[in-house]
Prior knowledge:
The chain is mainly α. It has 13 helices and no strands.
Amino acid sequence: MSRPLATRVLFDEPGPRGRFRIRVLSVLIGVVVIAVLAWSYLSLTASGELEWRKWKPFVQQWAVWFMLDGLRGTLLVTVVAAVASFPLGTLLAVGRAGGQRPVRWLCTAYIEIFRSVPTLLLVYVFLFALPGLGLNLSIFGKLVVPIIMINAAVIAEIVRAGIGALDTGQREAGSAIGLTRGQTMRLVVLPQAIRLVVPTLVTQLVAIVKDSTLGYVVSYPELMKQANTLANNTKLLLQSFVVVSLVYVVINFALTRLAVALESRIGRAAPGAGPAALGEEIGEQVERPVARAVR
């Protein structure tokens, strides 16, 4: 049985009139986009913004190295934030889905609060408020810690959705073979839940990359901060931000394609795409640890 498309699960299949309206709307939007692009090209050409002399500095060695320093800063923030927020988010999801009431309340409060707070606001708290209270982190810490705190709450909800998508029979099967609640969560439920939401977790990396652009607030030399400095020094504002935008497009496109590839691979590995099908496949992987836990 082939896996149903996400669009068919979330939305009703449009009828003939609906498909006709979609085609007409798509053509109109395409015409508008082409008109805007043509107008932009003519305007930029008339103002001289597309002349080679204004783009030449960005292929020179000093500018390339300057932007590469910013790219390294962006990747460092992304990697550190991802490595910290993904396990923390998983623990929060397990705590919220667990049976310990105080732990569930604390995890729920954390998730609901930090899922609603803008990352920029939290950066300002670490930049201006906390130093007055004796907590003065480094420039890197003032950027990466707020990103971790916000994204951990988002990742917790993603993982919790994966846990909720599993059939209750998975937990019952774990109890039937003598596993405790914690062992069932760790050996049976959590591996399947994470596998269900792996593409969404990879896509969340795109949000972390975007959050790294807040480095300009704390003067951390990430990609956007370097582009802003370059624009101020060369007076080539448009060119600087077009170049940095292309870099972000490449990074995010690569992450998006990785998510699509993982989703496709998971779909091929588990043609039924249901929790039961995934459970059968994962069951073989956890058979030995489960046996040792029972013994």
